[in-house]
Design brief:
The protein is mostly helical and about 160 residues long. The protein has one domain. It contains eight helices and no strands.
């Protein structure tokens, strides 16, 4: 029986690249669309910029442009698997600020467990978790990073 379990675990480990690749591509596409919409659709930017004013960041117009550009460029980088750890880290910073300045204010629950439950339910928290996972796991074998690494003889990037 243990041989069957061991074989199944080995098979699953061999397919680990699939969910890593899917998560990287999908979260990258999500951020690329989100940032691109803010950058290239004027009404979307006009809705986003007041958020920067509301949270009292310095230079709200420039900050809104910077955040939208980070989301667009780093989202594209993740979708392609290009500079994956850097892109994921930049988006973690973006999401951490969003959680700290905007999302956490939406939690109205009373009591520690209820507040924690509502906090963990925030989509930004899940985005941060996926992005941190990508920082540590790497982009997977089907990525620009993986192609470059295998081309120059650096192993361990691909799965």
């Amino acid at each position: 029986m243990t041989n069957i379990v061991q074989s199944a675990l080995t098979m699953l480990r061999g397919a680990e690249w699939m969910p890593v690749t899917m998560a990287r591509i999908l979260i990258g596409v999500f951020f690329c669309i989100s940032g691109g919409t803010k950058l290239f659709v004027q009404t979307a930017f006009n809705e986003f910029e007041p958020t920067m004013v509301q949270i009292k960041v310095p230079f709200p117009h420039a900050t809104a442009l910077f955040v939208a550009t980070v989301e667009f460029v780093c989202g594209a980088g993740l979708a392609l698997g290009l500079l994956t750890p850097l892109c994921a880290a930049m988006l973690v910073a973006d999401m951490t600020v969003a959680i700290a300045t905007i999302s956490i204010q939406t939690i109205k629950a009373k009591g520690f467990l209820n507040r924690l439950d509502d906090f963990l339910y925030l989509p930004e928290v899940l985005y941060v978790l996926i992005l941190v996972w990508l920082i540590f796991s790497g982009p997977g074998r089907f990525s620009v990073d993986g192609i470059i690494a295998s081309g120059i003889g650096i192993f361990g990037v691909e799965r």
